[in-house]
Amino acid sequence: MFKVGCCGFPMSMKKYFEEFEIVEVQKTFYKPISIETAEKWRKIAPNNFEFCIKALQIITHPPSSPTYRKAGLDVKDGGFFKPIKEVFEAWELTKKIADVLKARIILFQTPKSFKESEESVKNIKEFFNSVERNYCFVWEPRGWSDEGIKKVCDELNLIHCVDPFVLKPLYGDINYFRLHGSHKRMYKHKYSQDELLWLKNCCEGLEKETYVLFNNVYMRDDAANFKKLLQSSFNSY
Predict the structure, then answer these.
(1) Angle, in degrees to the nearest 10, between helices 85-101 and 118-130
(2) Which of 27, 29, 162, 209 is the 20 to 30 A CA-CA neighbour of 70?
């Protein structure tokens, strides 16, 4: 089974709900949305619509990250899964929003500065061994070795999130793909028909449930075009 959508809402929610069945909420990374907002989103979304959420950056990113300034956060310490009050409070906020949205998938994206080290491994293990495991946890690391990623994911049962144009997933009961654009143009990249056909062929060769989330400037068009390609393939059988 394939689920295709966008990282964030590139159009009005009403129109988005008509076109897609899944979204990865980005606002929850920068600042917690209110419970009232989450309740409203869940209420206006179709019953079968799936929300995935991106964990609050206080869990994964240090206060020196420019994303703190962008969000207007005034937090003295946090990030890197540190076993401190700020991180676990951020988890409680993330969890509450996930529960209201009925989100089963929570994405933890770590920056390149979260380097592969004994301390990082210790922190990530302590964090995931301390929190409730009622969710499907997805981890998008940057700069770690294949061996290090696989070892952590295997021990903690984390889904390894990748951009399939760049890497192959190393572990997980499902596939969770985030497409950030090409290496040269990054988020400004618009996927060509040939690239989307390659992606379709890649996905059709997978046996696991597969999530495909576009995270580029043209994500609405690219996600819609990719959905059409998948549907035309299924209709041909």
Answers:
(1) 50
(2) 162
